[in-house]
Amino acid sequence: MGDAIEYNDVYMVLRGALNGGRLKLHKQGIVFKSQKTGKVEQITAADIENANWLRVARGFGVKLVLKDGTHYRFDGFKEGDFDKLSNFVKKNFETELGELELSVKGWNWGVAKFNGALMTFEVDKKPAFEIPLKDVSQATSGKNEVTVEFHQNDDAQVSLMEMRFFVPNSGDGDDQVKNFQEQVMSKADVIQATGDAIVSFEEIACLTPRGRYSIKVYPTFLQLHGKTYDYKIPHTTCLRLFLLPHKDQRFMFFVISMDPPIRQGQTRYPFLILQFERDQETSVNLNLSDKDIEEKYSGKLRKEMSGPLFEVVSRVLKEIIGRKITVPGTFKGHSGTSSINCSHKAGNGLLYPLERGFIFVHKPPVHIRFDEILCVNFARGSTTGRTFDFDVDLKNGTSVSFSNLERQDYGHLYDFVTSKNLRIRNKGGKSGGATVMDDLMVSDEESPDFYLEKVKAEAAEDDDDYERDDDEESDEDFNPDMAEEDVKEEFDSAASSSESEGSDDEEKPKKKKKEVKRKPEKREKEPAAKKPRKETKSGKKKKDPNAPKKPMSGYMIWLNENRENIKKEYPGISITDLSKKAGEKWKELGDKTEWDEKAKKAKEKYQKDLAAYNAQKKEDGGTPKKSKTISDSFSKKSPKPQKQSTSSPSKFKSKEFIESSEDDSSDDEGSKKKKTPSKSKEDDSEDEESEAEMTDDESEGSDSD
C-alpha cells in the first residue's frame, strides 16, 4: 500500500453536473483539481466524519460527510477499486468506507430527513435521492406543498430546475409546510443582504459587464449596483484575482474570474473587469471591529485605508474573498511593458503572458492556464510581414487564436514560450517545430524577417516535393513534333503551303486535333455587349506624369509637419495607432485657420497649373505620344497592309477566325495579310503576332455586329 492513491478520470458532482478532474488521496487528506477551472478542493483527514461507497449511474461513487455538515461526492470509480479505497481510508482517515444501499422501488412517497446541508428522501428506510441544499436558489410554500427551485449549471446539458413536495398536515397544530420550507431556506444558497456592508466603492468603471457600478463588499458576497442591473457575487464563486497594468501606464485593470459566471438574461459573464486610473486617490473606513480584523483577516486590513483607488480595492477584496492576486511576471515586450497588442476574434485588446498562463483583456476576456495547453504555434499574420499570429491548442480539442501581434514582439514571446517548456507546433516543418523555429532566430543587427525565412524554407520544400512528383509521372503522350505542327497550324500563315502539298487524308486528323485544343465553348462566356478597347492590360488609363499633382487638404498639411512630433511623443507607435492619434489631435485642435489658408493657396496654385497644362496640351494637339503596342498597330480602323505571299495562293485562317468573323468573309483578296518568302525569321514572327492580333480584333467586331 503506497502513501497516496491517484485517479485521473474522476468526477465531482457539482450543482447537478459532473465536473471532471484528478483526485488524489494521501495521508493528510484528499485533493481534487478540476480540469475546467483548475480550482483545487482540499479536504483534511481530520475533518472527515464518515465515508460511504454507493452505486451510481456511471459505475460507483464515494460520498464524504464532513464534521461541519458539508458533503462531497465523487463518481467514476470501478467495482474493483472498493478494496483498495477501503483499506486506505481505514488506515489513514480513522473511519471505514461503508456500503450505502439505495432504494430502487421508485416510489414517490417517503420521509424527508435533514442532515446539515443535505436533505435525504428515504423510501422504505433507504435513501432514494439526496438534495444538497446549497444548490437550492428558492423555496416557496403553498397550502399543502413546497416548491424547491435550483441553480442552473451552464455545464450541464440537462438541468433539474424545480421539484415539488406534498406535505400533509399532521393535525397536531404544527404547520408542517412552513417548517419544511424554513429548513430548506436555512441552508439554501440564497444571497440576502443582511446588515451593513464592510465597505462601499462608488461609481467604479466596469468594462465587463459594461457600465458604472457601486460595489458593496459583504462578508460572504459582493453586490454590484448599477443604473439598470444588480449583481450578487458569492465569494465562493471567485476563482482568481488579477491586477494588470495597461500598456499606456495610465490605467489599471482588476479582473475577477468567476465560476459559475454572473448572468444577464441569456448572457454570461465569467469575468468581472474593473478599470481604474492610476492617479485616482481614495480614503475609506471599514465597518469591522478590531477583533474581526485580527482574527478573521490576520491584521492585514485597517479600519481606515487610503491611497490609490486600485490599490485599496485590490487589497480589500484580496483579504475578504481570500484569494491571491496574480500580477504580470518577468515578461517584457519590445515596448518595455508586460503586455502585447493583438486581436482575438473581432475585438482588440492586450495579451498578458503570466507565470502560469495567458490572459487576454478585454473583449472577450480569455484566461488560459499552462496545464490546459497542448501546444502553441507561430504563424505569419500578413503578406507584409509586419504582424504574426499566435495560436494556442488546448487539450480539450479547441484552439484559441490571437492575431495582429507586432513583429517586434516575436522574439520576446518566443523566448517566453520556450522558457515555460511549451511545445511549439510548426506547420510544414520536417525537422520538428522547435528546431525550425530555432533556425529562424538568427542574430542580426538589421532585425531579419523571421517569417519570410520560414515561408521561403517551406516553399523550397514544396518545390522539391513537386519536382519529385513530376519525375514519377510518364511523358508518353507528349510529342514535340506534333506540338510544333499545332503551333504552325494555329498562327503561321506559311502552314497553308505545307498543307496544300499534303493529301486530304493528312489534313483531316489535324483539324480534329485543332478543334479539341481550341475549346470554342469558352467564347459563350464572353458578354454580348461590345467592350471598349483597353489602353493597358489592367484596363486603366496610364496617369500622365506631366500633369500637376492635386493639392493636399489642411489636415494632410498639418500631419506632414507634426508627424515626427507624434512619433517622439509615443515611441514605438504603429502606423495605424499614429493615424488614430493624429485624428484625435486634429479634432482637439481649436484654431485651424492656418492650415485652411495653406490648403486654399495650394488649391489656387493647382488650378493655375492645371489651366496652363491644358492649354499646352491643346497646342501640342492632344496627349503626349505613347509608344505603340502591337494591338495599336493592327487595330481594325487602320489595318497595316501586308505583302502577298508567293508560296501560297490562298490566305490561311485559323478556326477561331473562321467561326467568329462570318461577316468579314466577303473582304477583298487585296486586304488580306500574307507573307513573302524574302522576309527574315524575325519579320515572320512579327507578322504572325500581328495577324493573330488582327484576328482577335476582327472577331470582336463581328461579335458586336
SS-derived structural category: alpha+beta
Strand percentage lies at 25-35%
Question: Residue-averaged pLDDT, rounded?
Answer: 75
Rounded radius of gyration (Å) = 41 Å
Q: What can be said about the biggest beta sheet?
A: 8 strands, mixed
Describe the structure.
An 8-stranded mixed beta sheet has the order 4-3-2-1-7-6-5-8. An 8-stranded mixed beta sheet has the order 18-17-16-15-21-20-19-24, with helices on one face. The protein has a 4-stranded antiparallel beta sheet with strand order 25-26-27-28, with no helix packed on it. It starts with a strand and ends with a helix. It has 705 residues and is of the alpha+beta class. The C terminus is likely disordered. The chain contains 16 helices and 31 strands.
Summarize the structure.
This protein is 30% helix and 30% strand. The protein has 705 residues and is α+β, with helices and mostly antiparallel strands.
Name a few traits of the molecule.
705 residues; alpha+beta; 8-stranded mixed sheet; 31 strands; disordered C terminus
Present the secondary structure layout.
Layout: E1 4-14, E2 17-26, E3 29-34, E4 40-44, E5 48-56, E6 59-66, E7 71-77, H1 82-92, E8 97-100, E9 111-115, E10 118-123, E11 126-132, E12 136-141, E13 145-150, E14 162-166, H2 176-187, E15 199-208, E16 211-217, E17 221-225, E18 230-234, E19 238-245, E20 251-264, E21 267-277, E22 281-285, H3 290-295, E23 304-308, H4 309-321, E24 325-326, E25 340-344, E26 347-353, E27 357-361, E28 366-369, E29 373-380, E30 387-394, E31 399-406, H5 410-419, H6 433-440, H7 450-472, H8 480-491, H9 495-501, H10 504-518, H11 554-569, H12 575-588, H13 593-619, H14 630-633, H15 655-660, H16 681-704
Parallel strand pairs: 5-8, 19-24
Antiparallel strand pairs: 1-2, 1-7, 2-3, 3-4, 5-6, 6-7, 9-10, 10-11, 12-13, 13-14, 15-16, 15-21, 16-17, 17-18, 19-20, 20-21, 22-23, 25-26, 26-27, 27-28, 29-30, 30-31
Helix pairs in contact: 11-12, 11-13
